[in-house]
Design goal:
The protein is of the alpha/beta class. It has a single domain, classed as Rossmann fold (3-Layer(aba) Sandwich). It has 10 helices and 6 strands. Helix 3 packs antiparallel against helix 7.
């Protein structure tokens, strides 16, 4: 009887066979890792030099609600571009694109540019597969510069198609809701937002606070603007703590006769900000 009881219990105690265990996880969807590179300014007007930061930031935030897509954070992309000496121009050729994609672990890279012929603006994009450097899709949308929100909606639709995804009605509703929450209607406000992002990237926190306040006045309901304010506060607080810690360490080092390395200077701030 004891042997019979043990035999009956064994199936419950033993691990599932590999085929069954694999089946339990087979329904978990694989996420496509997507990196959005700062959009290029092809207008010939220096006033638009930083607009690409806002365009990529809004695109990343909008698409982040699609769970089948994993977006690389904009700040991470800026760090990598700085390491590759691309922080000023932001322009990336095909060979460098593969390198960037491999560094951040992206399956797809999104590149964009914009041109303006007042009052019209055109946004051009291309999606490349990192592994092969092949261009998966290209698209352009155009419309009135003062209707930037409409252009962004069109652009998001074309990009999602480029990732070879077909959105469900629920996903499409989530995307529309996120776009509405992040809404920045016109180019002038987007330029001001871009200036704040540039100052944030280069550690010019007091100036960044001043710039982002102007954006809040123009787009008080924008979720992405509020999130940037919170990020700015965290960065400024961390920077202040680091400076205090470095000062204490150098003071202690002087007392005990040891040389403590000075803190690394912030990245040089470009005049375009």
């Amino acid at each position: 009887m004891i042997h019979r009881a043990v035999a009956l219990m064994l199936p419950a105690l033993l691990p599932l066979p590999p085929v069954v265990a694999f089946g339990l996880h087979a329904q978990e969807p694989e996420k496509s890792v997507v990196a959005v590179v700062r959009f290029d300014n092809n207008t010939g007007d220096e006033r638009y030099d930083n607009l690409g930061r806002a365009m990529s930031s809004m695109m990343i935030s909008d698409l982040s609600v699609i769970e089948r897509i994993q977006l690389v954070e904009r700040e991470r992309m800026e760090e990598v571009m700085a390491e590759q000496d691309l922080q000023y121009s932001g322009r990336v050729d095909s060979e460098t694109a593969v390198t960037l994609g491999m560094i951040v672990g992206a399956d797809y890279m999104v590149f964009g540019s914009f041109v303006t012929v007042d009052p019209e603006m055109r946004l051009d994009t291309r999606v490349t597969r990192t592994e092969t450097a092949e261009i998966v899709t290209t698209a352009d949308v155009r419309g009135q510069g003062q209707s930037l929100f409409d252009l962004q909606q069109q652009l998001a639709d074309t990009l999602v198609a480029g990732f070879e995804l077909v959105l469900t009605e629920e996903e499409r509703a989530l995307l529309r809701a996120q776009q509405e929450a992040n809404r920045i209607d016109d180019v002038e406000t987007a330029i001001a937002f871009s200036e704040a992002l540039c100052l944030l990237d280069y550690g010019a926190y007091p100036e960044a606070f001043e710039a982002i306040q102007r954006v809040q006045s123009a787009a008080p309901g924008s979720q992405i603007v509020r999130a940037t304010v919170e990020l700015l506060r965290r960065r400024a607080a961390d920077d202040a703590r680091d400076r205090v810690t470095d000062g204490v360490r150098r003071g202690i080092g002087g007392l005990i006769g040891r040389n403590v390395p000075a803190p690394q200077p912030a990245r040089q701030r470009p005049t375009a900000c």
